[in-house]
Amino acid sequence: MEIKKLTVKDSSLAFFVGFLFSQFAVIIATCIISIIGNIMNIDSDTLLTFINTGIGYLICAFAMNIGLLCVFFFFNKHKENQIISKPTIQKILVYTGIAIVSFFMLYPIVICADSLLIKCGISLNSIPYTLDTKNYILSIFSLVIAPAICEELLFRGLIFKGLKRHGKAFSIIITAVMFTIFHLSISQTVYPLLMGLLLSFVMYRENNIIYCILIHMINNFISLTLSYAGVSLIFNHWTYIMLAIVLAVIFISILLICILKDNKKEDPIDRSGKIFLVCSLIIMSIIWLLNNIL
Questions:
Q1: Which residues of 130-160 are buried (b: 16+ CB within 10 A; e: fewer)?
Q2: pLDDT tens, position by position, for the chain (294 residues)?
């Protein structure tokens, strides 16, 4: 079997199909739960309540992430794509530190953005169940471990790799934009975009998905744990707003310097790749807009 390199076309299709397949997997999981509920004579209100519990959310999250894995393995099949190598203890410690620092650097920025959305009358997405100890443990699997592994495999392990040989800035920025659109929520725009830039840069630098998964997992874990502990800060005083702006400028400036430094376009993108990339971004942007408007 001939081994080929991943292309922009592969990345574009994986982005679009990854969204559709993961959403389809959630619908299938929900339908199976409903069918089982009907067989057991459970009313629809009880079923809806179950789906919005920690266990129900875990089942749907499991289905969604299985969908992402299927897309990753399908597009990665018979492709030249080395994304895993043995991590070193030193780098694990370094990227653990980067994950913690990046979270608390971005936290004020995200909270300020959330506060602005609330003032504009936009409701924020939240976990649809009470985060007690049982649900906290379940959420570690559904909101921390599974997304960190499956989303990173799809975006940094597949999509980014198909874009990488067309330039550092191009591949990092486009992958981060795709990662943001994929979340389909206006309240999840700032954080996925900034974290997407960081994670894509780490993948470009290390060519090892392990470090990206580590950073993603630690960030999700800290966020979940703060919610479980009841820590919720709303930055509405001007000093906090200034802090958020300063941190945002520092974070973006550091990333831009790293991304744009020695940026070389290795290969031009073929016409087919451009068409698929533009179409996938436009279609997914429309879906993003409809999801936030309707």
A1: ebeeebbebbbebbbbbbbbbbbbbbbbbbb
A2: 567 788 999 999 999 999 998 888 888 888 887 888 777 777 767 776 777 777 878 888 888 999 999 999 999 887 878 888 899 999 999 999 999 999 988 888 888 787 777 777 777 777 777 788 888 898 899 899 999 999 999 999 999 999 988 888 899 999 999 999 998 888 788 889 999 999 999 999 999 999 999 999 999 999 999 888 877 655 556 666 777 778 888 888 888 888 877 766 667 788 888 999 999 999 999 988 888 876
